[in-house]
Design the sequence.
């Protein structure tokens, strides 16, 4: 069954719990009974942070884009609604998304949608490149930080755009008869992922050469560059700190497949480590996760590569404490900080975790302490003293990766852990609870507490040992 955006991103093979679909869904919670080892195989979905920006990049195309390996996420649904509001036609069947961007009916993105999904701000670059004009609401901050967009704006101004920000709207246009951006040499004060992606996309149709220096090196940046090049763009150096883009007149149709999600992969590795499990994960790109795999092996978790795109995790004898400093890629990824902290709560010894990328990304520490962890936070540094065990309790996820951390802790905590705040989790993880359940975790999603216990006690059958979805 083909599904059209503007309505709901639901297709025949699976459904996305949509917080707005029913009042009860807002109150849905995860219940986890810890202490059950995982086994079998888990299929990793396409990368959220590639899918969102590549969908925005489809605005550059004067034809059809077929995008494969698109994860089933609330954020993807929202990005689809933003593109549909701009006049694009989108249809989805399972993990294949078809985008027809021949017609862009407006340069004005809807305020209520952009403020719900900050990644939709990335569309400002392609809109300016295609139309020479864009009105994008400012995305605003979120739980983890102020999330400014000054680097995006300053880079577009360097390429000839005039930008005024008033009443929360970023009004941008390219003066001059042909309304075409001009190539420029731009140094980014911070290797911002979003700013690198916005400017790289804008430069694909600019007049002349653009050089981005101190650019972000995340794998999703290279994935976006490969997507744009598959449409005829001329981008070199993506994945390094200097990216060169030679502008072309227009970009043509493409059929492109997104890389696997390295953060989902890391999250499952941590779930395996904390439950002392053995299972396999694929498809994965091990090179995208070097700092995380190295850190896990250093603290005692055996991880082996099986073939080019499969990892096997094995039970650790014991978990040793370690220190973590989050950094732009290729350093330790900030998106893995919260999930990794959950694991370190049970390591032997003291760990020090320093969050240097975002200014408010340690809020999960207090919720982990409710589960019996021993964490002190001072500024952007968390001091984690390993404890012998965690015990289940009701907790609340404050943001996407914090919620994942609570799931990981719940898999090891004694007794029942109830996790609220699933709207965060569903933004960025493709059916996480279902995948964990199929690996043998005792985890269920319920719309309210009462039916949870009833449902679990009637369902004593063990989930299948090895299922991949
Ligand atoms: C992307 O966010 C990811 N989101 C984030 O993933 C990820 O944590 C982050 O990159 C860092 O890797 C998507 O790709 C959709 P940044 P982005 O611009 O682009 C400062 C997740 O959990 N900055 O690299 O917004 C900013 O304040 C999400 O999947 C400016 O100062 O991150 C931050 O301190 C969370 N001015 C630092 O740069 C700007 O104009 C890094 O932010 C832009 C950013």
Sequence:
């Amino acid at each position: 069954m083909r599904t059209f955006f503007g309505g709901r991103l639901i297709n025949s093979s699976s459904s996305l719990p949509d917080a707005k679909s029913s009042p009860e869904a807002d109150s849905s919670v995860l219940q986890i009974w810890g202490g059950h080892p995982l086994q079998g195989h888990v299929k990793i979905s396409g990368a959220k942070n590639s899918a969102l920006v590549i969908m925005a990049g489809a605005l550059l195309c004067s034809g059809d884009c077929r995008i494969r390996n698109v994860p089933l996420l609330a954020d993807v649904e929202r990005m689809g609604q933003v593109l549909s509001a701009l006049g694009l036609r989108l249809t989805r069947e399972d993990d294949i998304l078809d985008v027809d961007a021949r017609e862009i009916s407006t340069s004005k993105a809807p305020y209520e949608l952009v403020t719900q999904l900050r990644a939709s701000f990335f569309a400002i670059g392609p809109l300016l490149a295609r139309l020479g004009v864009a009105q994008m609401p400012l995305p605003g901050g979120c739980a983890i930080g102020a999330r400014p967009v000054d680097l995006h704006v300053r880079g577009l101004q360097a390429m000839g755009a005039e930008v005024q920000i008033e009443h929360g709207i970023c009004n941008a246009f390219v003066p001059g008869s042909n309304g075409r951006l001009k190539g420029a040499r731009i140094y980014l004060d911070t290797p911002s992922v979003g700013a690198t992606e916005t400017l790289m996309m804008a430069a694909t149709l600019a007049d002349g050469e653009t050089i981005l220096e101190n650019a972000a090196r995340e794998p999703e940046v290279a994935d976006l560059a490969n997507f744009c090049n598959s449409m005829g763009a001329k981008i070199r150096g993506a994945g390094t700190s200097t990216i060169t883009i030679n502008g072309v007149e227009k970009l043509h149709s493409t059929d492109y497949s997104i890389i696997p999600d390295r953060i989902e992969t890391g999250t499952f590795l941590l779930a395996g480590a904390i439950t002392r499990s053995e299972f396999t994960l694929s498809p994965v790109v091990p090179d995208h996760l070097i700092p995380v795999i190295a850190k896990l092996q250093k603290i005692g978790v055996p991880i082996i590569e099986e073939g080019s795109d499969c990892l096997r995790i094995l039970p650790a004898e014991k978990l040793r404490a370690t220190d973590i400093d989050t950094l732009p890629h290729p350093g330790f990824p900030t998106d893995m900080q919260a999930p990794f902290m959950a694991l370190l709560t049970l390591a032997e010894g003291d760990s020090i975790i320093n969050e240097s990328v975002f200014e408010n990304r340690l809020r999960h520490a207090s919720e982990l302490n409710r589960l019996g962890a021993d964490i002190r936070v001072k500024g952007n540094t968390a001091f984690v003293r390993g404890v012998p065990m965690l015990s289940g309790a009701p907790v609340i996820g404050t943001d996407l990766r914090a919620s994942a951390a609570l799931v990981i802790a719940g898999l090891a905590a004694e007794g029942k852990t109830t996790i609220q705040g699933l709207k965060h989790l569903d933004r960025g993880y493709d059916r996480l609870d279902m995948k964990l359940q199929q690996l043998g975790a005792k985890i269920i999603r319920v719309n309210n507490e009462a039916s949870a216990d009833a449902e679990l006690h009637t369902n004593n059958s063990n989930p299948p040992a090895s299922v991949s979805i």
User: Anything to note?
Assistant: Residues 48-257 form a domain with the UDP-n-acetylglucosamine1-carboxyvinyl-transferase; Chain fold (CATH 3.65.10.10). Residues 48-49, 52, 119, 145, 147-152, 190, 192-195, 216, 218, 334-335, 357-358, 400-401, 428 surround EPZ (CB under 6 Å). Residues 262-274 form the longest helix (13 residues).
